[in-house]
Amino acid sequence: MAVGMPEFVENPENRCPVILLLDTSGSMSGQPIQELNRGLAAFKADVLKDSQASLSVEVAMITFGPIVKLTQDFVTIDQFTPPTLEVDGLTPMGGVIEYALDFLENRKQTYKDNGILYYRPWVFLITDGAPTDSWQLAAQRLREAEAQSRLSFFAVGVKDADMNILKQISPPQRPPVIFGGVMIYQYFMDKAKSMQPIQGFIADSYHFYQIAKDGYLKASQGFEIHRQNDALISIIFSALALEAFINEVLSLAKDAKQAGESEAFLDKLIDAIDESASKKSTREKFMLASEALNSSFKKGENPYQNFADLFRLRDCLGHLKPEDRIEEGENGEFKYLGRKLSERLRSKGIFQNHTQVESITLLVSTAKAAQWACNTASIMVNAILDKIPKSFSNNNQVINLYRTKFQPPVQ
């Protein structure tokens, strides 16, 4: 798939894919199909009321009866034109589920190829009957996808639907619901409202990290003043990347809860990082997040020690006062009078060897300091990602993106 498809260039918002699997077999004739048509129009109208959702929600429609048919490929809700559905034939429910799962995976790959993030997809099945084809393997695939957090599945039985089969198809935590035909319209209205608050978040952390890595690469080209200044840029932006990342983890957890994710760790993680009750430093957020994920960092040991030193250095560089910088001793040497950080940094082998002035800004203006800062950021981000339960992180687009972007610089 070519990168930069026009639909994503014009609208790069995160996507929330929604697939509607709609029974158009003969038994849906009369009031059920009329209410389904009415519900589709209401669904579009209600989602459009929210400006963010109208850019993020993408709808595809697959009908089944008498054949499986892609009635509408993925489009954003503003481009979605609800068709007038007609009924005929049997109910190939197994076939439509298999088709939808393959179709959805192809769409996810399109998002990835074009650099588009996406929320967990929603798949709705609305039927009034029982499958007239083989459905067991399709149901197994569907439940596995749900268990792996690759989609959220909702089954709706209408009138005389075989609820026993729908229960076997649906995930145990989200059993099917049954409605009379007149209630299909209200069901769509309710689901549309639940989509309206969808909000993405801007991931700045890996952009900051790329600036940090660029600074290291420039600083590593040899000793020149401007290249050593690039080392300071690398240090500052490595810390900024970590600060942005831990706040983005909070947004990631909140978005997951909003999308219906029920993982127990999410509430703990939100409480750990959220600042609504009290202000927290970045160091506190990382430590509390690790505790919420049941794998605490150990103070005084790496990777947390390097992380803490990076932030002490960032604070030192950002809050130096003129009287903090240097003082000439009786022996003519200049000493840095700031925080008690110099000796620990010196032990890491990252200090400048080309100056006799004990200025912290000169001492850390080295490619080795820049590399240490970048490596510290990479290690800490991946340490947090590794602590997130696999049931949530596997196949999670945002987490995979962080892992890709926070690779250490090439030495």
Structure explained in plain terms:
The protein is of the alpha/beta class and 411 residues long. 52% of the residues lie in helices and 11% in strands. The protein contains 18 helices and 8 strands. It has a 6-stranded mixed sheet with strand order 3-2-1-4-5-6. The longest helix is centred in the middle third of the chain and has 34 residues, at 225-258. The radius of gyration is 27 Å and the shape is elongated.
Strand content: 5-15%
Give me the secondary-structure category.
Answer: alpha/beta
What string, H for helix and E for strand, traces the elements in order? HEHHEEHEHEHEHHHHHHHEEHHHHH
So what's the oligomer here? single chain
User: Helix share of residues?
Assistant: 40-55%
Give the spatial strand order of the biggest sheet: 3-2-1-4-5-6
How large is the radius of gyration? 27 Å
> For the terminal residues, how far apart are their CA atoms?
32 Å
Overall geometry: elongated
Low-confidence stretches: 196-200, 322-326
Mean pLDDT: 83
Largest sheet: 6 strands, mixed
> Count of helical segments?
18
Beta-strand segment tally: 8
Give a short synopsis of this structure.
The protein has 411 residues and is of the alpha/beta class. The chain is built from 18 helices and eight strands. The chain has helices spanning 6-10, 31-47, 51-56, 93-113, 136-147, 163-169, 184-195, 205-219, 225-258, 265-273, 282-292, 304-318, 322-325, 342-347, 360-363, 367-387, 390-393, 397-405; strands at 16-23, 57-64, 68-76, 122-127, 152-158, 177-179, 326-328, 334-336.
